Amino acid sequence: AQSVTQLGSHVSVSEGALVLLRCNYSSSVPPYLFWYVQYPNQGLQLLLKYTSAATLVKGINGFEAEFKKSETSFHLTKPSAHMSDAAEYFCAATSSNTGKLIFGQGTTLQVKP
Amino acid sequence: EPEVTQTPSHQVTQMGQEVILRCVPISNHLYFYWYRQILGQKVEFLVSFYNNEISEKSEIFDDQFSVERPDGSNFTLKIRSTKLEDSAMYFCASSLRTSGETQYFGPGTRLLVL
Q1: Are B29 and B96 in contact (CB under 8 A)?
Q2: How far apart are CA B101 and CA B95, in angstroms?
Q3: What are the tens digits of pLDDT across the range B63-105?
Q4: Nearest to B100 among A36, A43, A51 (CB)
Q5: DSSP string, B79-111
Q6: Inter-chain contact B98–A97, Cβ cutoff 8 Å?
Q7: A34 neighbourhood in chain B, CB within 8 Å
Q8: What DSSP character marks residue B26?
Q9: Cα B85 → chain centroid
Q10: Strand partners, A107
Q11: Please, which residues 72-91 of chain A have a Cβ atom closer than 8 Å to chain B?
Q12: CB B99 within 8 A of CB A32
């Protein structure tokens, strides 16, 4: 069965530092992969997605992620954290033709001044 | 920009009562979903819906749950007899297609069963 694992439920970085949020997937077929962000009292907003085109995917707000099949990973990075990046981040995968998304457990990003 | 809306934002109910959670998906989308997130746990898939039929459901989605698209705009999730463990945030989502298409999520309904 497909699963998604996010390493680290809480990540804390200083403003201006590199952000690295980890996501690994297990799947019998190459999945489509997504990163969503959730700000307090809001729904999930798509940051970026991988759909088997370029392995390095650029998203909104300066985030990017690299699909590495050999490592079954899709880690999210941003070179320089901003206070407004503080939120919860979810990695998700699907290989279902019904669109069913499998989510990781989420990572709360804290940005310190 | 079009968005998915959900009502109510919060609902408190007594165990055993029926609740209906409402969603208005993006107007030209064809695929609709419900997910839930119990506090402190993962977002979990409940059901996907296309062409007025359930296309996939999880093991969580038992006979107590049902979905409906009663008109051209609303998409509802009904829980017939709520249990304490149904307390969660329920998210509606919609997409134009499946297979890698972006799902757009609503802000959620927080359901508390007492």
Answers
A1: yes
A2: 7
A3: 999 999 988 789 999 999 999 999 999 999 999 988 778 999 9
A4: A51
A5: ESS--GGG-EEEEEEEESSSSSPPPEE---EEE
A6: yes
A7: 102
A8: -
A9: 16
A10: A89
A11: 90
A12: yes
